[in-house]
Amino acid sequence: MSEIDELFPQPRHVDRFDADVRCSAPVEVVHDPSLPEQGYEVHVTADRAVLTHADDDGRRYGEQTLDQLRADDGTLPAVDIRDHPDIAVRGAMLDVSRDRVPTRSTLERLVGILAAARYNHLQLYVEHTFAYRDHEDVWRDASPLTVSDMEWLDDLCEAHGIELVTNQNSFGHMGRWLALDRYRPRAECPDGVEIVPGVRWPPGVLAPTEENAAFALDLVREQMAAVRSRTVNIGCDETFELGRGASASRVAEVGLGIVYGEHLARLVRPLLEHGCAVQVWADVLAHHPDARALLPEGDVTALVWNYDPPGAPVPELRPRQAALLDALGIDLAEPADFASRLAPFADSGIATWVVPGTSSWNSLVGRLDDARANLLDAARAGAAAGVGGFLVTDWGDGGHHQPPSVSDPAWLYGGAVAWCAETNADLDVAAVVDRAVTGDATGTIGRVLDEIGAVHGRTGAVVRNASPLCAALFPHHGLMVGGTADPDAVREVIVTLERARDELARARPTAADGGTIVAELDVAIGLARHGALRMLGGAAPDELRADLAALIEPYREAWLDRSRPGGLADSVAHLERTLATYA
Asked: The Beta-hexosaminidase bacterial type N-terminal domain covers which part of the protein (predicted)?
């Protein structure tokens, strides 16, 4: 494989390449603002090397390309490259609110991966894990991000050409706050709500009031004060309780969309007035045109999210689960492609971004094939629609049991297809993982991640936005599972996982965290195998108990190598709940 084939991301145009012609001349750098935004050109002959760039970003990406082409002796091959991105803003969002708050070294590792994949935007999804001055009771046990952490990370991102953007959910997903007596009166449903008979949820949504808007905006502003960017994601997704409590009479009078839109405007307008650009999740807006009509004019972006690949199967759910989704207004039969998800906003005048995901959450070992299809669809549909940005999310639902390295392939692939989908659609992401992240010359870690990232779809069961192995390990999570597992297929999955675990021993990573990568993947594969054993059935409870118990302490150790201690007990509690069923 030549230097040009190993370029990451693959450039848009390579007009000429001759590895036999070498250039040792210093690189001449030329600014040419006529090039496309963030674009660059590289022209190398035997006696001259020229990097032409549109702007600072273009120079950074051009130099990144030259660094990859440069041989150990410092020479460059003869080459002509023209390159620029499909989508201007290529962002990543890491969930730091579902138990796992990363250490600084883990954040630094992530920034390095994002820079290599040409991301230029980063958000940390916060519900309660920021050290707010006057709210220690909500973050005390979470090992939260501090002002100092955010200032440090902002400087690090700035040095890599990445904008660090505040993310603070401000309407729904407020359960950690509303579980405390001090904040519970702010809830739409302070005593919780029975969504369907027998299914009662604790309070999670703020009542749509002026007082609650002021409360949420104070949280937003406190976080924003720690970073340079004036862009903020205020969330406001999945407000399922709205209209079931404090706002019930108002919703009955004017409708859910109006009530949601009125409160969203309370949050958005003051931020716009202070010169901020505001992002909101698009799920409620997509289904309520009356809410879209109430959005204040200005720099507001709807983040259109979808985490399934196009044509994702619809599982046949148990009656209670089907009734719950129906009560929440969730229709799994809706098209799972970005062109369809963008359609409600086509003539709205509202700016949009596409938001796919790593597909790592609720998977233990990844769903890499789903992630690739989802990310590529987002990149293609987003470019075709002219969206302003592409935001890859890495969620931590259910205890954030997947380790960071499980998401590495999706981070890399997402950045590459957002840069240029045409040349990176078929990227050998396993090879890129080992070249750009692990330094494993044996190619083992990338290959293992590729193998384990496909087992979720081989059991015969049908699951949306999760792996059946994770669903089997944590039956109390209520994941959307349908169909019946095929015992022979599950046995093959177990064999694949055991083989992958054995292969890890042959890995030779040279990255500073290489040992941690191997250790955390070993635990993750062990947990996935345990889920498969539960799916297969037939194992004695004592055997299952011993198998899972042997994984819990290594899980703790791997967690603490990457993440802060706050949240670890909550994450482990999910494993211990399953362990208790073997007593």
From this structure: 31-84
